[in-house]
Design goal:
- By secondary structure, the chain is α/β, with parallel strands linked by helices.
- The chain has a single domain, classed as Formyl transferase, N-terminal domain (Rossmann fold).
- Helices cover 38% and strands 19% of the residues.
- The strands form two sheets. The protein has a seven-stranded mixed β-sheet with strand order 3-2-1-4-5-7-8, with helices on one face.
- Helix 1 runs parallel beside helix 7.
- The longest helix has 24 residues.
- The radius of gyration is 16 Å and the shape is globular.
- The chain starts with a strand and ends in a 7-residue tail after the last helix.
- The chain binds 5-O-phosphono-beta-D-ribofuranosylamine.
């Protein structure tokens, strides 16, 4: 019957694209993206969803009036679409505690470093890669983890390593990590949809 997925984005949505492409290619373990939600109206991630014929929603404090309103609207959308798995793919807002509890071990996030290192509040985008280089790390790579009430904090379920090169710039490292994110996230969703990693 497949696993019904919501994807949350705040930006360009290249990870969302990798999920949509995997679904289209029959490589998502029968999982299907039912709705893409963004906290901003004009992000390219929503455009990618529209092009793929997927329902899009803009849900933010601006549209809903309060953080509680955001949580209520999300829960209503998840109920309406009978969502079983929520994927944060470059979503920069903290998920409401009530939503996290209701979807225990059913929300995953991708982070562009080897958690538990280089995660937490404010650690996003190029800041992560700059910190990895500044620390003199020899390896980096994306992590997928279950989401709890803290930024980048819940149990890690998948990681992949890439080398950090001697002459790396943050941009070069980001590109190397992002290319691997685009494999790791769809593969992890597939493993969840196929029951190889147990969902909550
Ligand atoms: C990725 O690096 C992801 O790991 C992080 O945010 C970025 C999103 O990129 N959480 P995109 O919007 O999927 O292109």
């Amino acid at each position: 019957m497949g696993c019904r997925v919501a994807v949350l984005v705040s930006g360009s949505g290249s990870n969302l694209q990798s999920i949509l492409d995997a679904e289209h290619a029959g490589k998502l373990g029968g999982a299907t993206v039912k709705v893409v939600i963004a906290n901003k109206a004009d992000v390219y991630g929503l455009e990618r969803a529209r092009k793929a014929g997927v329902r899009t929603e803009h849900v933010s404090v601006r549209t809903e009036g309060s953080p509680e309103g955001v949580a209520e609207r999300m829960l209503a959308l998840f109920a309406e679409e009978q969502i079983e798995l929520i994927v944060l793919a470059g979503y920069l807002k903290l998920i409401d505690t009530g939503v996290v509890r209701k979807f225990h071990r059913r929300i995953i996030n991708i982070h562009p470093a080897l958690l538990p290192k280089f995660g937490g509040k404010g650690m996003y985008g190029m800041k992560v890669h700059r910190a990895v280089l500044a620390a003199g790390e020899k390896e980096s790579g994306p992590s997928v983890h279950f989401v709890d009430e803290l930024f980048d904090h819940g149990p890690v379920i998948a990681q992949r390593r890439v080398p950090v090169l001697a002459d790396d710039t943050p941009e070069a490292l980001q590109a190397r990590v992002l290319a691997v994110e685009h494999q790791l996230l769809p593969e992890t969703i597939r493993a969840l949809a196929e029951g190889k990693i147990p969902l909550g």
